[in-house]
Specification:
The chain has 268 residues and is an all-alpha fold. It is built from 9 helices and no strands.
């Protein structure tokens, strides 16, 4: 049952996020692109601080060791990001002029897509596949700990992958000129999440005593993405109305996690 849930959650997060990103990028909801950053940040922070970390601290592991793991995890992801080995996004400069507010989408995947990209699309897909594999392991860790945690972790991954994949689709469409092919390629990269889930299931099952530390590492990943990648993109000079909308969508992301958690807990 747990393995089926892991496969369902990883496929929903890995491929579902791509399709939702395509809807936002290519469909009638494109004007909500900026709000997805706020929603994703809220979902990630709520998942880390309200669910993953409390679950880890309810274990027999010592608080000092878990806090040390959290600290090391944050520094580790920072160093990998600096070394351009751990990629949570890409740096895009949309040839059509960026988002609706006139701002380019900023991520950092170790290469600048502001220049014409030719073979760069393969680097994008490779980075996506590696990232998706890691997401699968994190989702599997949460499902093994608790079904409710697995559901909200999968949703949190889906939420933060949407703006990530929106940038991917922009790059691949720019290089190939084919919207459908771009969607297929990014979907295949997202499907690697399920492979990571299988490996994570086997790994966590063998190392069950290390599960609290896996959960803390997952938390450090989510916190790092939210604070180092997503929220800095929201720190712009905006009107009062735009700022209120930004805060509202941040709250929506948190409420979404809390609501799904409540539903999953009652059904569980």
């Amino acid at each position: 049952m747990t393995l089926i849930a892991i496969l369902t959650g990883t496929l929903a997060a890995g491929i579902g996020s791509v399709w939702l990103a395509a809807l936002l990028s290519f469909g009638v909801l494109a004007r909500y692109t900026n709000h997805m950053l706020s929603l994703a940040a809220g979902a990630l922070l709520a998942t880390a601080f309200m669910h993953l970390l409390p679950e880890a601290f309810e274990s027999q592991a010592g608080a000092q060791e878990l806090f040390a793991t959290l600290l090391v995890g944050l520094v580790f992801f920072f160093l990998l990001d600096k070394a351009e080995l751990y990629h949570h996004g890409h740096e895009h400069h949309d040839p059509q002029g960026g988002d609706d507010a006139g701002h380019p989408h900023h991520h950092h995947h170790g290469h600048d897509h502001g220049q014409p990209v030719r073979s760069g699309s393969w680097a994008v897909l490779t980075g996506d596949s590696v990232h998706a594999f890691g997401d699968g392991i994190l989702i599997a860790s949460a499902f093994v700990a608790d079904m409710r945690l697995g559901v909200i972790t999968a949703l949190a991954v889906l939420a933060h992958e949407v703006p990530h994949h929106m940038g991917d689709l922009v790059v691949l469409r720019h290089t190939s000129g084919n919207r459908s092919m771009a969607l297929i390629k990014v979907s295949l990269a997202g499907a690697v999440t399920a492979l990571g889930g299988l490996v994570g299931y086997a790994l966590v099952d063998m190392l069950h005593d290390w599960l609290p530390y896996f959960l803390v590492v997952a938390s450090s990943s989510f916190v790092y993405v939210a604070l180092a990648d997503l929220i800095p993109q929201l720190q712009k000079r905006l009107t009062a109305r735009e700022t209120l909308a930004q805060i509202a969508w941040l709250g929506v992301g948190m409420a979404l996690v809390m609501g799904v958690s409540g539903l999953a807990h009652s059904s569980h």
